[in-house]
Queue: 3 jobs
Job 1
Amino acid sequence: MADLHTKNAGNETVWDVCELDPSAIEAYWARVGETLRRVFDVSSGDADDSVRRLRERLVNDGSAETQLHFYHLDPFQVAADLVSGDGSKVVTADEMSRYVDMLNLAGDLHPDRAVL
């Protein structure tokens, strides 16, 4: 998955949400949706609705700074929070294992990157 926090050319740090690569943002939300479906067994329609509602809320209610900071969250944690509704979801070892398997299949698990 592309790094949301650096610009493509020269790896300069992003300081404003409008500087984020739109394709990286789409990949981020796709990962949240995929995690909902494949890790937490949420139906495709419900996963899409949850992601859409959260994105709308973030754009409508969040400052540019809040939006930028939001993209520092791991898509796995965002999906877990969406599943619980109140952020109280306790992630099981099986769910974590499914997420790691999903990252391995996508080629996105790097030894220098902490999963959680």
Note: The chain is about 55% helix and 0% strand.
Job 2
Amino acid sequence: MRKFLFSAAMIGCCLAFTADAQIRVHANVNIGSQPEWGPTGYTHAEYYYMPDIDAYYDVINHQYVYYDNNIWVHNRVLPPRYGNFDRYHSYKVVVNQRNPWEHHDRIRARYENYRGRHDQEVIRDSRDERYRNHWREDQHDNGRRDHGDNGRRDHGDNGHRGHDDH
């Protein structure tokens, strides 16, 4: 009887550990929160660093973070000075660290060579089933659009993958 109880306890512990591990893994997946203009290849992204405008996008809170008048501003839309910025064709670096702007000089130096690159596949253009239910700004913000899209909807597929360095 003791062996049976011991075996049952061991099985119960293993099942509890497995369930806990599965919960933690699923909590780190946020594909559905990433915008349609985000880079493909990531199951989890907290921020995108955009070297072309030297700013960030907060994937979880759906807002931009940019430097303005000596402070980091968090806003759902980009200011007019970024009116020509094309989110779909600019390069985005996934940065999975808390408040990356606090280490901005290091991040800018590390990724400045990506400025001007336009060869990154975005979620909207992917045929990967994982991106079927991505976050779309026009569905969740009552049609509000920021200055970054400019109505461009090019559906070209150049086959390039995003930068995998986190």
Note: Confidence is low (pLDDT under 50) at residues 13-26, 139-166.
Job 3
Amino acid sequence: MSPEEFDSLINNLKKLPGEFKALLEKRIELFALEMGERISGLIAHAMYRLTGILFLSVGLILILFAASKLVGDLLGNEGLGFILVALPIVIIGTMFFLRRPRSMVMATRDKMLQQFMKDMQEQLSQLEDNGQGNPDIRSSPDTGEESSPGQQTGRESKKQNE
């Protein structure tokens, strides 16, 4: 290697940290710009949706107001028309407010319990793999007979139910 090439190499090595720092700064700047673009897109999308909901709400209120006036004119009592139109809405709103979605709560709880049981079975099979040669056959602690994993979990669930 000639002395000129060596000096050029040394100069390039001296420039390397500065260039690396500049590259890192540009990457951070690019990341910030991309995040800003994503956030502004999300905000614009949310504002668009909120505007749509606002217009739908105003339209629904006007339709309900017109229906109330119509029912009031038909019954000869404007107040009664407003009460009759508002009553189903109040009943439905009260049902949503007071009732908990039991089916959704139960489904979520069942999924979590099922995943927990699956994880426990995997951990048990790993422990058995480390301790015994055959993980599919287990000895029952109360009877001493061998059973498959499905049979043992059936017995365990019967014990839990008792």
Note: The beta strands are 138-139, 146-147.
